[in-house]
Design a protein that fits this description.
The chain is mainly beta. About 5% of the residues lie in helices and about 35% in strands. It has helices at about 5, 15-20, 140, 205-210, and strands at about 55, 70-80, 85-90, 95-100, 115-120, 125-135, 155, 160, 165-170, 195-205, 220-225, 225-230, 250-255, 260-265, 280-285, 285-295, 300, 310-315, 340, 345, 360-365, 370, 375-385, 395, 400-405, 410-415, 420-425, 435, 440-445, 450-455, 465-470, 480, 485-490, 490-500. It is globular, with a radius of gyration of 22 Å.
Length: about 525
């Protein structure tokens, strides 16, 4: 077994410079209060906060039924690209979604690109977009037509995401609509009112030799003045070798300047496929922790300011074996760690193209140190009782709502793992459950959204409220704000509100039909 020291290859930035510059660099690293579970209360990010728990405790009156054809309870709808995996996320009157460029909002910006789009929350008006051209070796590092798969983190007037080109990017939430070019970055090629305004940008491949496999898709975490993001680092085209074993898996950067504070290359040459999960944060028993599932199927806890590894947990049985194409029993991790009641909840899985197979879901005690694979395991659900998953959990009132890739949604007791009910949506699930207003919402690959009653169910069965079809696959997680439910299908963004009515003729069209030009 490798030691903590050998597993960790933390490269804390400018250690020597700290000695020379003293206090000048200390401003790049926040001081975290021992009880500061959420040091950035005004920020929004994937998972509704740093604990990544997909719940909302304040929304009321959310719709339970709608019809995208007749427009019943549809407030507005807008065309996206042809593939949408990131968002929606709402902040200060705007809705942001990561997609590709096949919606073609700007005829001057053609071809395949990653795209972040911004819309007005109330009216659905398209406001602006920012696009990124593809990397040259697209099938290795930047898979065609996948767009931007990073759900942004937003605080104040800054939006942070990981581009399809493996760049950590900070942009102004107003784009160029305010007529200003913010930040130290001034080299934007496109500066019209419908273009995005870059504040700073950090190229992970150029600066750190990051080697994303298929795509960098990290959804950033904000903690104090630091932003944490995964890099996507992984194997080569043959799916056997790790070309850059010491390429970072996780980076910590100053959110104001874009300066690197530390990075970590764990698990080095032991990456199984790619690094596609996201970090979470909480203060547990007075100890701040950034908890991150790496590409080897292990979960690691980092000291937030320095990158020192606090503990690690192997999320696969010791006799599990990794085999190409998903034939093996060892899984990597795409789900995010969800922190609830000072415990970590997470499931394992693989690229959906690897198919269905048995998986594992864990409740972990994160108070230990070193290898806590045995000592930290509270309970697990495995084998025929839980399949591979790429979804993250929602946990409320000691009930876990977690879906697996096979289309089963489970309700489990958070303390004991007791099984309350299983609901079959009869389609693959990529997104996560969203719990709000006494309801559980979940989308699937067939384009259906199921609405269930929150709770233990009745007679061992879930209480089914309704099921609606969105007209295209739903790979994202629903969110709600001010009584409106926002759902991004593969190709459209919907605002759904009780009592709203959008006539079919009022459907908002794309500004240009068809796929993006190849010229």
């Amino acid at each position: 077994m490798m030691t903590t020291t050998s597993l960790s290859h933390v490269r804390t930035v400018a250690i020597g410079a700290v000695l020379l510059l003293g206090l000048a660099l200390l401003g790049a690293i926040p001081t975290l209060a021992a009880d500061a579970d959420n040091p950035n209360p005004g920020a929004v990010m994937f998972g509704d906060g740093p604990k990544r728990n997909m719940i909302n405790l304040t929304e009321k009156g959310l719709p339970t039924e709608w019809d995208v054809r007749s427009g019943k309870n549809i407030k507005w709808r807008q065309q996206l690209g042809s593939q949408t995996y990131a968002g929606p996320i709402i902040h200060e009157g705007k809705v942001f979604v990561g997609t590709n460029n096949e919606g073609l909002r700007n005829p001057k910006l053609t071809k395949d690109r990653g795209n972040i789009m911004a819309f007005d929350e109330k009216t659905g008006e398209f406001l602006w977009q920012i696009t990124h051209t593809k990397l040259p070796e697209s099938k290795l590092h930047d898979w065609p037509l996948q767009g931007i798969c990073s759900t942004p983190a937003i605080e104040g007037d800054r939006l942070y995401y990981v581009s399809n080109r493996a760049e950590v990017v900070a942009i102004d939430t107003e784009g160029f609509r305010d007529g200003e070019n913010d930040g130290p970055y001034k080299d934007e090629e496109h500066t019209s009112e419908i273009d995005g305004d870059i504040v700073w940008i950090y190229d992970l491949m150029a600066e750190l030799d990051a080697f994303p496999h298929n795509l960098a898709a990290g959804s950033p975490l904000l903690v104090g003045d630091l932003i944490y993001a995964s890099t996507g680092t992984g194997v080569d085209e043959a799916h056997i070798n790790v070309p850059v074993p010491y390429a970072p898996s996780l980076v910590a950067m100053n959110k104001n300047s874009g300066e690197l504070v530390w990075d970590d290359a764990t698990p080095d040459e032991n990456v199984l496929h790619g690094t596609w999960s996201n970090p979470s944060f909480a203060v547990i028993n007075g100890r701040p922790q950034v908890i991150f599932p790496a590409g080897d199927g292990w979960i690691y806890s980092f000291e937030p300011e320095t990158g020192e590894i606090l503990w690690r947990f192997d999320a696969n049985p010791k006799d599990s074996v990794w085999r190409l194409g998903g034939a093996g029993t060892r899984n990597n991790i795409i789900s995010m760690p969800v922190i609830y009641d000072n415990k970590v909840y997470i499931g394992v899985g693989q690229d959906p193209e690897h198919g269905e197979a048995p998986g594992h879901f864990y409740a972990i005690d994160p108070t230990g140190s070193g290898d806590i694979t045995e000592s930290g395991k509270i309970w697990q659900r495995s084998g025929e009782d839980f399949n591979r998953t790429i979804s993250s959990a929602s946990i409320k009132d000691d009930i876990i709502y977690i879906a697996d890739l096979s289309g089963f949604l489970y309700a489990l007791n958070a303390q004991s793992g007791e099984h309350y009910w299983t609901y079959d949506v009869f389609a693959a699930v990529w997104g996560s459950t969203f719990v709000a207003d006494g309801k559980v919402y979940l989308g699937d690959e067939d384009g259906d959204i199921v609405v269930l009653k929150e709770g233990k169910g009745e007679n061992g069965e879930a209480v089914d409220i309704a099921e609606m079809n969105m007209g295209a696959a739903v790979y994202t997680t629903p969110v709600a704000h001010d009584g409106t439910l926002f759902i991004a299908s593969r190709s459209e963004l919907f605002a759904i509100e009780e009592g709203a009515s959008l006539k079919p003729a009022e459907k908002a069209p794309a500004e240009s039909e068809g796929a993006a030009s190849d010229e």
